[in-house]
Amino acid sequence: MTMTAEAHAPSLKSQAEQIFRRKRLLAFALPALVLVYLAYAFFAFNVPALLGSASLENGQKLVRDTYSYKTHVTRDNRSGEVAFSIEGERKGRYPEGTHPDWVSVAGETTVITLPKGHEVRYFADHVEYDLPGYGLITAAPGSGGVNATFPAGEMPEWINASKNRVAITTEAGRLTITRNRTEVFRYSTGWELFFFTLDSPYHGLSLGQIVSRAAGGEAGAIWHDFWYNSMWRHVDVAWALFETVQMAFLGTFGAAILALPLAFLAARNFTPLLLVRQAFRRLFDLFRGVDALIWTIILARAFGPGPMTGALAILLTDTGSFGKLFSESLENVDEKQIEGIRSTGAKPVQRYRFGVIPQVTPVLLSQVLYFFESNTRSATVIGAITGGGIGLMLTQAMITQKDWEEVSYYIVLVILMVFAMDSFSGWLRRRLIKGDEGGH
Amino acid sequence: MSDSAKAQPSVNVRAEYFAQMKRKRLYSGILLAIFVALMASGFMLADSRNAGGFWEGLHRVFDFPKSVLSEAWEKRAELPGHIVEFFPALIETINIAAVSTLFGALGGTILSMLATRGLARWPRLIPVFRRIMDVMRAVPEIVIALVLIFVLGGGPVPAMIAIAFHTVGALGKLFSEVNENASLKPVEGLASVGANWTQRMVLGVMPQVAPNYLSYALIRFEINIRASAILGFVGAGGIGYELKNAISWGQGRYDSAAAIFILLFLTIVAVDQCSSYFRDLLTHGRKKGEMLA
To answer: One GO MF term, please (chain A) (predicted)?
Structure first.
């Protein structure tokens, strides 16, 4: 006994050393390999060029736009008319004769008060910008160009002046002067006109006033003005969210209904015929392999853009995934229960109904609900491609590259929607499948 | 006397059982009816809000694939050339998926360990880290990708960051479920010899969970390839971008679209097969390891 142990000892030791050496090598080689790959990707993705082209200005604009909005005060230098509009949009225009309270109008003179003591004054023939700590800038836009005069000294970099255009960007706002137009941007915090647009009688009222008016029988009108707000389009947003969830719902459950009978045909214990089984398995692979992206493109050609196309794209992809998953669970069912049902003289359909379905239902249902969850996200993406739901609104708002407050609003809504669907499907899973995943 | 006393409860039980069954059947019947009604009305509503109707479009479903295929067949001599032409774009798509899976797995590992009871560095912050993972998981990739494309300009990096962000959340959740099953004994052992948290995690937990982590990461890689193809379609480079261009060229240039379809399909199937093979190997390898130990 001791002899053999001693004889084995050196070989065991060398074996252990060998294993250690291999492990040490692996522990070094694996991270090194990953690093080499990342270095390759760094250059393949052309990160240095990207860092050069990245627009910090765009980023700042995006961030600032998400929590603030700007009001344009525009003077037409030919006619002398002054217009006020939020974000420069027609929908956000102040009605004739009204103006924000930080502006005072007296005949031809318009005085715009900006934060930090800055003040811009429009006169009949010239413009003044009073900048505390810098001086007074005057300009008389006319036939000879802008004709701006600046305080003595070197021109600061936040002033961009040429013969026909002057742009002054400060922390307080922005003044642009051209021959035809003088325009001031004033930034304010918040999401503008989120509840009521300027043409609504309820704009500018406090919550208490709104409530008392609603109690006075105007609830319908108030709701109408809010719901059909032309700036934020709450009704369209609500429809889009609903459409997105609908796409996910129809796609996921339609796929489950379609895949269940097909899964029987692809399961070893229900379809002994190898040819049929293989045919269905390859069919599932095909449906899964032709990704949702390709399905979307193909279906959009036939059905046009919309929620139906998105739902069908999800349906087809998931039929493949469900077919594979379901047939795997069907292969794992307990034969004893089927035997028992068979012994009572049940026909095949009855055997499936009472012997198989009760066994697999919890597993299948939880898989379907997991897919439902993730398909809410996919439906957003597919909507962006095929034109339906919140995904489309999001891409549209992004393409304009100026309504970033709407973009952030949609992003918040999408995240809330996904959260809601996650917790709903989690709740349903716990209700329907008792005893499932009590832990975690 | 005694007879009726015996019979009474059994009749009751029987009646009760049948009543219960009836109620149960009624409930499932109602549930099923609601479900069917939801599905039917949902499809009808979706149909009415779609640009083209379902029944008018149904016979046209195969028109597009047919024209793509027939054109590809007509110009089959050019197909290998197209495949070579678009291969770099495919590589870019795969690279986006691979890099984002790597970063996502790294971030997911760290977050999952911070969010698992027994392993967490700061046990009080477990709910915070869980919420962070939930939020990261909830944000669809396209949202981040589009914002980053605006700031950084088009290209693979915005897509990579967007997918990695989502992957951190998705893998973090799966990893933390794996972590819950990890034995704490090695961790305690390492703690007793004075190892710090990082050492405990890397040396005590990682060897236990690595096979499962790897298997989840492989599935995620599969999903990420699809995601990166889709993001390419909205302007993030790679094969999706080429596909969008090829389709917008319209009839007469469908042969390049066909080539891209083929490449994308083959890649997805190949990665699918590879990952299921390796996942099989991982679980089997672990079994062998257990037998030796």
So the answer is: ABC-type phosphonate transporter activity
